[in-house]
Fold Crp/Fnr family transcriptional regulator.
Amino acid sequence: MNSLWFFEDVNLFNILCPHKFKAYKASHDFDVYRKKDYIYFEEDSANKVYLIEKGKVKIGYYSEEGEEVVKAILTRGELFGETAILGESKRNEFAQSIDNTTCICPIGVETMYDLMRNNQSFSFKVYKFIGFKFKRLERRLKLLLFKDTKTRLIEFLEDLCADYGYDCEKTGVKIIKHPYTQKDIASLIGTSRPTLNVLLNELKDEKLIEFSRKEIKVHKEAFNVS
């Protein structure tokens, strides 16, 4: 594992990018995207996986009614397009940059297969990561289908606590420093930005949370709300 390049402070697992490998460096470049640029569309050929070096990417699809459904918003150090590794030939989702300075490391499927064949531990981590993403997506879809908006928000905050939160011993609250805008959060829980703002203020009035642009303080009682 000595030759692998790891991102610092990634929030899922440390994964390599071929740009730092002597075998791939000469023919490999990072791709840069502006806000609203698409990395790929539904039905595009699935021949690469992608690692976010900087910025944010929205993953989603369009319903039969033409409405956008957001499956995930990913940030630095996260992988997407990974179902290409499982033999998917066409994309069943789109990937779009939602930041003006998104920088992405594309990794060809054959390159990934080589790297996975050469390192059993790395291969195990990739498959474990894919399973984790499927499980989280299934949970999110169940929330969208069967829970009211306030419950979806509270459970989303619980996920944020797991991913970005840390305990503050002095106050007994969970402090979340996260990368999402209110628009991002609204998309992820399937509501409008005005409705999200109303719900956040409602939770604030109930003394369950405090929030600012990039930080949310969650009191433990918030997760006991039915």
Q: What stands out?
A: The first strand starts at residue 31 and ends at 33.
